[in-house]
């Protein structure tokens, strides 16, 4: 699936990934390939991105995630790598 992490200032990440874990308003949840369409608010916390055997982490201050047609877009208020 394809992931983009975007802030009001710039694009932080874009590329193919295997999984994404996000801090939803009601707790952490993971998005895998072919996840059902969803839009959810995000709380302050850590986004985990899995690319093959590599993991990356981004600290966000909140935002929104949209999943549709195997594309994931995270619109974050701010991000710290």
- Unreliable segments (pLDDT under 50, ≥5 consecutive)? none
Largest β sheet strand count, sense and barrel closure: 5 strands, mixed
Average pLDDT, rounded to a whole number, is: 96
DSSP helix fraction: under 10%
Shape: globular
Strands of the biggest beta sheet: in what spatial order? 2-1-9-8-5
What CATH architecture do you see?
Sandwich
Tally of alpha and pi helices: 0
Distance between the termini: 21 Å
Order of helices and strands: EEEEEEEEEE
CATH class: Mainly Beta
Structural class: mainly beta
Strand-residue fraction?
Answer: over 45%
**Might you state the CATH topology name?**
ATP Synthase, domain 1
* Domains (count): 1
Provide the gyration radius in Å: 11 Å
CATH superfamily: F0F1 ATP synthase delta/epsilon subunit, N-terminal
What does this structure look like?
The chain has a single domain (2-80), classed as ATP Synthase, domain 1, CATH 2.60.15. The chain is built from no helices and 10 strands. Helix content is 0%, strand content 69%. A hairpin with a 2-residue loop joins strand 6 and strand 7. The mean pLDDT is 96. It starts with a strand and ends with a strand. By secondary structure, the chain is mainly β. It has a 5-stranded mixed beta sheet with strand order 2-1-9-8-5, with no helix packed on it.
Feature tags:
single chain, 5-stranded mixed beta sheet, ATP Synthase, domain 1, 5-stranded antiparallel beta sheet, mainly beta
In short:
This protein is mainly β. It has strands at residues 2-6, 11-16, 19-24, 27-32, 38-42, 45-51, 54-60, 63-68, 71-76, 79-80. The protein has a single domain (2-80), classed as F0F1 ATP synthase delta/epsilon subunit, N-terminal (ATP Synthase, domain 1, Sandwich).
């Amino acid at each position: 699936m394809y992931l983009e992490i975007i802030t009001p200032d710039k694009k932080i990440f874009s590329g193919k990934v295997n999984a994404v874990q996000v801090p939803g308003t009601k707790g952490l949840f993971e998005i895998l390939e072919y996840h059902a369409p969803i839009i959810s608010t995000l709380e302050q916390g850590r986004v985990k991105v899995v690319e093959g055997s590599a993991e990356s982490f981004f600290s966000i201050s909140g935002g929104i995630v949209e999943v549709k047609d195997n594309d994931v877009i995270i619109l974050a208020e701010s991000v710290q790598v």
